[in-house]
Amino acid sequence: MKTILALHGNPGHPEDWNLLKKILPAGYELVTVDPHDDTWTSLLTKTSDKKILLGHSWGCYRVLKALKPFASSIEKAILVAPYVKPEKKISGLAQALLHLPVIGDALLKANHAKAKDSFFADLIHPLKSQDDSYLEIVNGRLQEWHLWKKTAFQKMAMQANPWSPADVSAVPVTVIYGAKDKVSDRKAQGDVFKAYPNKTEVEIHDAGHGLIWSHAREIVKALQEESKTMNPKIGYFPGSDERNNVISYMEKHLREFPDRIALTWARRDSLQAWDGNPMTPIAHDKITYKNFAERINSFARGLLDIGIQKGDRVIIFLPMALDMYTAMFAVQRIGAIAVFLDSWARSHHLGASAECVGPKAMISFKMAFDLVDQVPEFKSMPVRILYGPGDKFTHKFEDLLKKDPSPVAAVESEFTALITFTTGSTGKPKGANRTHRFLSAQHQALSHVIPYTEQDKDMPAFPIFSLNNLASGVTTVLPALDLSAPSDKDPALLACQIINENINCTTLSPSMLVGLSRFCKEKGLQLSKLRRVVTGGAPISKDDVKAFYEIAPQSDLWILYGSTEAEPMAHIEGRDMLKESKVTDPEIIEEGVNVGHISDDIDFKFIRIKDGPISLSQTDWDKIEVANGDVGEFICTGDHVCREYYNNPEAFKTTKIMGHDNRVWHRTGDLAYIDSDKNLWIVGRVNNAIERAGKYYFPVRAEVLLKRMDFTYRCAFLGMDDAKLGQATHAVVELKSDIDPKSFDFVSAKKEIQRVFEKNKIPVDHIQFIEKVPMDPRHHSKVEYKVLRDQLKQPGVVIG
To answer: Does the predicted TM-score (pTM) go above 0.85?
Structure first.
């Protein structure tokens, strides 16, 4: 016999469950309880059998509050039309008045008389009172104002002790919504359940808030069904647990498909001998998941043997190759913290990383160790693991590959697994704190947008995307590029690997995508095996999308909008981006870039442009949010949104907002708006918004216009201080490499730019040509505006 403890709503009554009791099948006992205090919780531990908790409306809030402290006594929870957080709060003043003996009662009576009938209609919608005799009883109870008083005071108690992320439990939860609910807003209430690792959500299209009366049989079905999974996801287990460690993905693949190829990469000798023809194959080496796991396990043992322990920070400064991933996964396996530096990292990145994390060890080449000898922050680092030939090391990489196995370290879900750094293009690089749970959540979010099949062979140009590949169990081809030093040969190398390695999926930066499209068009190549390409990291224009489809018309092209702190935040398929817009003149550009549908795994808001920290202890959301559809800074929160920067509370203040419910909101720094079709449009960056003569202008639209000029290779649109205007607008252009500046007609080019900008009603005060527009070192796709501003102040920089 399974015992069900049923908690009614507020207002509500134990008899609300009578209809369900009548149709409950054999083997179940339904016990109605009074949820207004905690007395009922004693029933959870009265006997050793696990109970099923069933809640309706506000009763669901009481269920959620009990899940974590009584998890060992609960089999699962069924939540019907949940009302787990107030949608309209009772203000502090109103609460004070309601507690006054005479005034409070008078206010409640007046509100009761005004609202009781409409509340009843909303409560039972789409039912009518005559549909069931019990609904007349419900209506009769609601005529009593004392019940209204009890409801108000319970709501105040709910506000005083609200649901918070600390209440999240791994107990399986099934949530049943009514699509026609007029009491609970699904989005507002459903936000709570995004944090629950083991949930099932069901929507009944013709039901409202009173579905315990209209759809009792669906509730019985939910009671009888086994939960989809009785185990939380990797990274979501309570306490310290081996299954929270992200290396569990590799352990899972080792059990399920040990002989599948995990990684394949170009052989150095073959790459050096390659003739530059994309049709000439480059020999590749490969490793199975079984052998890869053994190599990780072996290196992890070596790290343990030299004293690397749980929580130690280990800098990994290696190119995107087999042993970069060997090192990263081995560090995570033993519970140490991998600190990843991109291969293009500059000397100030090294110093900033060491200052931030206080490393115990670094794994890198001789050249890197020679460099850090000049960086004071590395003086105290005791362990130097040399990869390749050289001196000045404490250990060599190959010597740490031991035969003995290493255990998987148990970690808490929010224990740091990986630290990656922002580019630092707008200031000091910040270390994003990627916990084991964060990495698992990011993998799940990416899987919702770009799922893989067993047959896929993927080539990701970003190291972090390779982590998602390996978590997915897909075969990953490492690009034969030096990401730290882009070359004119890169498009040919990419085409060669795609064609000869039978790659059907790839992830490329916008600059790589543009280069690949241009190269293939020039060479008359069609990349017919591709089924999906993913790009992101910087804006991409419709012209770039059209150019890609010319060389791979059968492929999907997904443009992801994301950042170091949150990836993905939104996504759009290229064909949707190209759909006909309201603008018919080809020389008119829409305001911003459409990045598509916002990820279902995040919540978002748009706030006013504001420099400096934002504290909700000093203001409220309604004071800082912009009107729906207006441009504002895009902020978001969710499991795969980085909550903090490692050892950097100052960065938290300027880039995060702590919500009243303890949720951390990330300030992206991107200015955006949402259109009537729920698409997200990015118009620029907060720190690059140009305030000219009291009006804001944004770079994205202007830069798309500049890129369309047949003489433009790279470009920028930015503001510079101006005594009269506040900021003057500057259009800056880098000429294509095959154009000779000595013979180029700068005057005609400037006239054409001026004409097109006037047509788009974008004021341009200065048009300047320079030798090279500075781009970000990670993707080579985003302008470094701060560097450019400084350059424009130097004599001799402008060439026309």
So the answer is: no
